[in-house]
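FIELD: query
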Amino acid sequence: MKKKFIYYVLSLALLAYFIVIVINYKVDALGLNSKQNYYLKDASYARYQNIGIAKNNPYETIITGTSLSENFKTSLSNKIFATKTIKIPMSGASAKEQNILVSKAISKNTKRVIWDIHYTAYHGSSDRMHKSYEFPLFLYDDNKLNDLKFYGSFDAFKLSVKKILFKGKYFTNNFDDLYNWYTSDENKFGKENVKAYVKSFSKKIADSSYNKEYGYRYLKENFDKNILPIVASNPNVSFEFYFPPYTPYYFLGFYKTDMLDDIIMFKQYFIENSFKHKNMHIHDFSVDYSTLENLNNYKDTHHFSQAISDDILTKISHREFEVDQSEYLEKNIENYQQYLEKNLGRENDIF
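FIELD: result
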């Protein structure tokens, strides 16, 4: 009798588990195996959801990178480039994570990739993955059975419930809203917020052991192993990389720990590689001084407003800040380094 009871309990548990898997697969909350009309807005699931977006949506233009590109509007991209666009950035993404995603996302129909150059992505080991956000490698292979690891999870069931009962709250049918943080953070912008951010990270940015992970060797290796091979193996795709309009104070830690030269050397190396590949273009908004000197455009040292995101996308299409080989050393390297050193040297006068 006891054995029969255990058998029934186990059978019911297996049946319930099977039903959960079927529900999760049918709802497919993150669109991993089907095209969806609504996608989860929560950026913490981007590493899961992005591969589904790339596999199951038609597109010719990809917007990707880090949180610096999360506010980009696909509708604006569709308009100015006259192509269908998907947006698949990942907050805090390492170069390795970006490599895995973009390698899988590029298809025979891809014409263009708009990709931010966020120095944070290039520090440390070239195999580094984000410490807090799991990267589900099992979703990036061709074995669909692996996907059951997600569909059989309680996390997937929670998302299914949210999509069934609270779709309007947690999901969006507008890619412009996908992962967009500006609406919720709009009241966090301005000089005082930038100042508070710098103060809160004062110990970390002065930590020489941390900043050493931004040494030129690490930055170069991340680029050589994770970014350059994608450019070289896709000659028919136009890669539109952009340096964001960082405030000078993003570099304060590097300046204080004598690492600024490493950052500038890497910037030069990145740009010079673009001259070797016809399909690689650099748009340098770090020398858009009218933007980066207005701290009302920022909520911290590097995250900029929706208006700036729109402006960057438009100017990329107009090639207004595309790096010119004939003058890049003076304009984008030498003058820029002098500008940073001048401003960082008078930090106390500004704050």
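FIELD: remark
The chain has 18 helices and seven strands.
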